[in-house]
Amino acid sequence: MSAQTLPVIDLVHPLPGFPDDRRFALVDLDGSGQLCSLTSLDHDDLRFLVAPPNTFFPDYTPEIDDATIADLDISSVEDVMVLVVLNPGETLLTSTANLKAPVVLNTANRRACQVIVDDADLSVSAPLSA
Amino acid sequence: MLVLSRRVGESVVIGDDITITILEVRSDGIRVGIDAPRSVAVHRAELLVELEASNRDAASPSDAKISSLAEELRRRKR
């Protein structure tokens, strides 16, 4: 699998469930950035499949709260990259995305965190088939 | 765990800048107001549990699964 690896991403808060992993690499898995992995640099075998949401959820525009903007030291909207964590099934139809808790990345300083969006309509396991 | 009894309208202060106020007691639960700095994340515990479970489910998918999804995505885009 060819992979273009971006510099180290620093999770300012670890992913819930994975308190010991703070340094990740964002790896482009398909050459177009539509499918990426967040690969832990702290544990060899830990990675998450992530994707920019617009491919699957064109209307998805999560609101990023002030605390996150402060935590990630975001100064410009253009620096913000939103990724959703995918829970892959055997096919795209059986795969889901976590829209409730996107990973927000400040590309300027490579600080990131998984944010809980305060919207009861968003699910942690939204079908990709949408 | 510190256990306190509070009446409606009474508060508990945590540290210098977090205040928790009991707003209302109903038959099926209580309403709590939380006044905290924006830098302090306040979340429902069950949501964090759900998020942890979802992250664990999503962790470390196999190469085969990722390859087949990437291939499916490429075909779909054509």
From TrEMBL, chain A:
InterPro entries: Flagellar_assembly_factor_FliW (IPR003775), Flagellar_assmbl_FliW_dom_sf (IPR024046). GO terms for cellular component: cytoplasm. It is found in: Cytoplasm. It comes from the Bacteria. The keyword Transmembrane helix does not apply. One of its GO terms (biological process) is bacterial-type flagellum assembly. SUPFAM superfamilies: BH3618-like. The keyword Amino-acid biosynthesis does not apply. Keywords: Bacterial flagellum biogenesis, Cell projection, Chaperone, Cilium, Cytoplasm, Flagellum, Translation regulation. Belongs to the FliW family. PANTHER family: FLAGELLAR ASSEMBLY FACTOR FLIW (PTHR39190). Acts as an anti-CsrA protein, binds CsrA and prevents it from repressing translation of its target genes, one of which is flagellin. Binds to flagellin and participates in the assembly of the flagellum. Interacts with translational regulator CsrA and flagellin(s). This is Flagellar assembly factor FliW. The lineage of its organism: Bacteria, Bacillati, Actinomycetota, Actinomycetes, Propionibacteriales.
TrEMBL record, chain B:
It is found in: Cytoplasm. GO terms for cellular component: cytosol. Gene3D superfamilies: Translational regulator CsrA. Its main location: cytoplasm. Keywords: Bacterial flagellum biogenesis, Cytoplasm, Repressor, RNA-binding, Translation regulation. One of its GO terms (molecular function) is mRNA 5'-UTR binding. Pfam families: CsrA. Homodimer; the beta-strands of each monomer intercalate to form a hydrophobic core, while the alpha-helices form wings that extend away from the core. A translational regulator that binds mRNA to regulate translation initiation and/or mRNA stability. Usually binds in the 5'-UTR at or near the Shine-Dalgarno sequence preventing ribosome-binding, thus repressing translation. Its main target seems to be the major flagellin gene, while its function is anatagonized by FliW. Belongs to the CsrA/RsmA family. This is Translational regulator CsrA. It comes from Nocardioides anomalus.
